[in-house]
Specification:
- This protein folds into two domains: 66 residues, Orthogonal Bundle (Arc Repressor Mutant, subunit A), CATH 1.10.10; 137 residues, Four Helix Bundle (Hemerythrin (Met), subunit A) (Up-down Bundle), CATH 1.20.120.
- It is 68% helix and 4% strand.
- It has a two-stranded antiparallel sheet.
- Strand 1 and strand 2 form a beta hairpin.
- Keywords: DNA-binding, Transcription, Transcription regulation.
Length: 222
């Protein structure tokens, strides 16, 4: 007798909401969703390939994290930052990244330092989205090496906010090479267990990224 295959159980609504959340964040990274873009729940559900219920749950989560906003007369939109908010974001990022580098110099194990050194070597020749993704992974590895769960939580919120800024600053002329040199100074200081130098190098790195972001904004059409 032929065996009858059972249909897999339906995926829990919570799992679908998590998937919708992850897909939306990925859309921010890839530019599918742009800051200020209007969102319709029905269209978003169709675009993500699922029903409105998990999408609605994901939207609530994204709103609580500041990635989606509800604007008067416009409804749901991808959040967009003004110039003052961008400045405030980079001020906090500089402070937190500096702290992470200092703590990494104090607490990182040898395997974590070796990982940062390998990732540094892998940066050579990367461009475009490959460079941007590698940069995100490098910073995550640095954050993990700090061994501070509360700092990690704050840096995760900063990383989420950066999704709303559009293209990476690594796309500006000369920025990728400069970032590699800045990363090298951070990793060298961490390997030397020099917390002060690691913090200074990390702060300088984020300050340079901030300058590049301002330069990108200055060339955008009004």
């Amino acid at each position: 007798m032929a065996r009858t295959l059972k249909a897999p159980p339906p995926e829990p609504a919570g799992s679908l909401a998590d998937r919708a959340y992850d897909l939306f964040r990925e859309g921010l990274r890839t530019g599918t969703f742009r800051p200020g873009q209007r969102l319709l729940e029905t269209e978003l559900a169709e675009q993500l390939g699922m029903s409105r219920t998990p999408v609605r749950e994901a939207i609530r989560r994204l709103q609580s994290e500041g990635l989606i906003a509800h604007l008067p007369a416009r409804g749901l939109c991808v959040a967009a930052y003004d110039a003052a908010q961008v400045d405030e974001l980079y001020v906090m990022r500089e402070a937190l990244e500096g702290t992470a580098a200092r703590l990494a110099a104090q607490h990182a194990g040898r395997p974590e330092i070796a990982l940062l050194q390998r990732m540094l070597a892998q940066e050579e020749g990367l461009t475009g989205e490959a460079a941007a993704e590698h940069n995100r992974r490098f910073h995550r590895a640095l954050h993990q090496a700090a061994h501070n769960r509360y700092l990690l939580r704050s840096l995760s919120a900063i990383s989420d906010a950066l999704l709303l800024l559009g293209p990476t600053t690594l796309e500006t002329a000369g920025r990728a090479a400069a970032a590699r040199a800045e990363h090298a100074r951070i990793v060298a200081a961490i390997a030397a267990r020099d917390g002060a130098a690691a913090e200074a190098a990390a702060r300088a790195h984020i300050a340079a990224a901030h300058e590049a972001r301002l330069a990108m904004a200055a060339t955008e059409p009004a």
